[in-house]
Write a structure and sequence with these properties.
CATH superfamily of the domain at 3-77 and 104-133 and 167-191: Cyclic phosphodiesterase
Largest sheet: 5 strands, antiparallel
Oligomer: single chain
CATH class of the domain at 3-77 and 104-133 and 167-191: Alpha Beta
Shape: globular
Strand content: 35-45%
Number of strands: 9
């Protein structure tokens, strides 16, 4: 049985990608060389649901479930800005940029995706949804002082609103892990409900 590594996400537009690339360069200048492995901007997504190993014969069913989930939410906009670290600034493993969507449409979309793919054998995520965009991952080789420095730079960086982006579609994406980094292939997209923008 052929397995694919897949997830459901909102793809970013070119302008937001460019702005994130500039932000990565700005942060990189302040950090120890090679202490963070930056995600290629074209590989940054707003992940709604990581499905993981997916049997190839389920791909069409996931596409159909995604199309149904998308019809439950009208198009909306997200505001991107602010920095943080997971799990926290004292022990940073991931550097992320935050998202704001005050109407609740983003959470509603994520809930709908969870509900529609669960019957296909993808368990509902127990952790609450914290929307973010991963900018980079702290290298395992980073020393404690380098990691502390990353946390300090992130904490003190005065990053306001970076961009706003309209969300009108959601994508089903395949991820192939290669030595040079992940390669992403869009397996399908679904349009959000037509009508009044939120």
């Amino acid at each position: 049985m052929s397995m694919l590594r897949t997830f459901i996400a909102i793809e970013l537009d070119e302008e937001l990608n460019d702005n994130l690339c500039r932000l990565q360069a700005h942060l990189s200048e302040q950090l120890a060389p090679s202490s963070v492995r930056w995600v290629r901007p074209e590989g940054i997504h707003l992940t709604l649901k990581f499905l993981g190993d997916t049997p190839e014969e389920k791909v069409e069913a996931v596409r159909e479930a995604l199309a149904q989930a998308a019809t439950t939410v009208a198009p909306f906009s997200i505001t991107v800005g602010g920095l943080g670290c997971f799990p926290d600034a004292r022990r940073p493993r991931v550097v992320w940029v935050g998202l704001d969507e005050p109407t609740g449409a983003l959470s509603a979309l994520q809930d709908a995706v969870e509900a529609h793919v669960a019957p296909l054998g993808f368990p509902t995520e127990k952790r609450s949804f914290h929307p973010h965009l991963t900018l980079g991952r702290v290298q395992r080789s980073a020393t404690k002082s380098e990691a502390r420095g990353i946390g300090e730079v992130v904490t003190t960086a005065a990053i306001g609103i970076i961009d706003e982006m309209a969300v009108e579609t959601v994508a089903y994406i395949r991820s192939d892990l290669r030595p040079s980094g992940a390669v992403y292939t869009t397996l399908g997209t679904a349009k959000l409900a037509a009508g009044r923008r939120i």
